[in-house]
Design brief:
11 helices
């Protein structure tokens, strides 16, 4: 992330905010002997420094606290020439290479949304399988005598395990779903950052397959950086997306539920309001609350998504029912995630990102070819 401040530019590097100017970098490195350049260098006052050495000396950050990509992003924004150890010739060669127009790469993000849908379906399918085993009695027989490789495991407290299996499965399904949803947010935030800043290239790339691989690796790196940023809490991640307040409150409720289950022994440490869309059947305008139900000729059978709110006061133990979990996961699937994805696309304005190259990229045709980010 980069912001303009009165004393230069402010960057977020490895979760740390730093303010930096070009003059400050030059002053810090004045008289410093460059280490051996093995990969990427930055040229400061005519001398080529390993790029991580330069940023570490300029900011006081440890080299292990940031990546080469971070250093390239910061020093490029300060207009320093950047190149690789394999590039030959004087500094002007690297400078002229940087001056070439950036390549525009189209990254199709719909695969991320579809992957989330698949993950949510998988969580519900596993949940349904356990519930079915409990109902038909095969759960108790299945857990005894189960082999893990060469080891056969038996449990003495099978009755107790069966009695708590439904609740454990409900919690597990929810935790899996919310974890996948948070990872989805991390990818979108990383995508927004890359769309704004471009993709620095620290080596020669040739052909569409190599460029695609590089982009995927870089996006993984940026996504992991978002996930590791302790200052970027899950509630703060929602601020990246222009979504209705009701949707924001829905996501906040799910985050609060996750904290209670994971960190507070299933006790609400604050009032938790769970908003979800429940699937309900109606005959005309009368809700079906029990089966069998009878419908006469001329009447209409409808399936509706009905908004509901379930509240847990502070200090109350949380017990998720299978119906609650299904409603939460379905709400993420059919409403919350698609809405956030649509807001992200609208805010980005385009799925194109700039591939900023410090060295020559072979094959001039590859920039016209769309690539997909997995």
């Amino acid at each position: 992330m980069v912001r303009t401040v009165h004393d230069g530019l402010k960057f977020t590097v490895g979760g740390t905010d730093i303010g930096l100017t070009k003059e400050a970098v030059e002053r810090k490195l004045n008289g410093l002997e460059p280490e051996t350049v093995r990969e990427v260098y930055v040229e400061v006052d005519g001398r080529r420094y390993p790029i991580k050495q330069a940023l570490a000396m300029a900011t006081g950050l440890p080299k292990g606290g940031f990546t080469t990509h971070d250093a390239m992003r910061v020093l490029r924004k300060l207009s320093f020439p950047i190149g690789t150890a394999s590039s030959a010739g004087p500094a002007t060669t690297a400078t002229s290479s940087i001056a070439k127009p950036p390549i525009l790469v189209e990254v199709n993000l719909t695969g991320w949304l579809q992957q989330l849908m698949n993950d949510l379906d998988g969580a519900l399918a596993d949940f349904a399988h356990i519930l079915n085993a409990i109902e038909n009695g095969t759960y108790s027989t299945g857990v005894s005598g189960q082999r893990f490789g060469l080891v056969e495991v038996g449990f003495e407290n099978v009755t107790e395990l069966v009695s708590t299996a439904r609740q454990r499965a409900a919690n597990s399904c929810f935790m899996t779903a919310i974890g996948k949803f948070i990872s989805f947010l991390d990818k979108l935030i990383a995508s927004a950052n890359v769309h704004r800043e471009g993709i620095p290239v620290d080596r020669n790339l040739s052909g569409g397959e190599e460029i695609t691989k590089y982009i995927n690796e870089y996006m993984t790196h940026r996504t992991n950086a978002v996930a590791r940023d302790r200052g970027l809490t899950n509630p703060k991640k929602l601020s990246y997306f222009d979504i209705p307040e009701t949707s924001r409150q829905t996501a906040l409720g799910y985050f609060a539920l996750r904290r209670a289950l994971e960190h507070h022994h299933q006790i609400a440490s604050e009032e938790i309001n769970l908003r979800f869309l429940k699937q309900k059947f109606f005959i005309d305008n009368a809700e079906i609350t029990r089966l069998p139900a009878y419908i006469s000729g001329g009447q209409t059978l409808q399936l509706r998504l009905v908004p509901e709110v379930k509240s847990y006061p502070m200090g109350l133990a949380i017990a998720l029912s299978p119906e609650d979990v299904y409603a939460i996961v379905s709400t993420i699937r059919v409403s919350l995630a698609p809405e956030i994805f649509e807001a992200h696309i609208k805010q980005s304005g385009s799925a194109a990102a700039q591939l900023q190259r410090p060295t020559t990229i072979s094959s001039t045709k590859t920039h016209r070819r769309p690539t997909r980010s997995r």
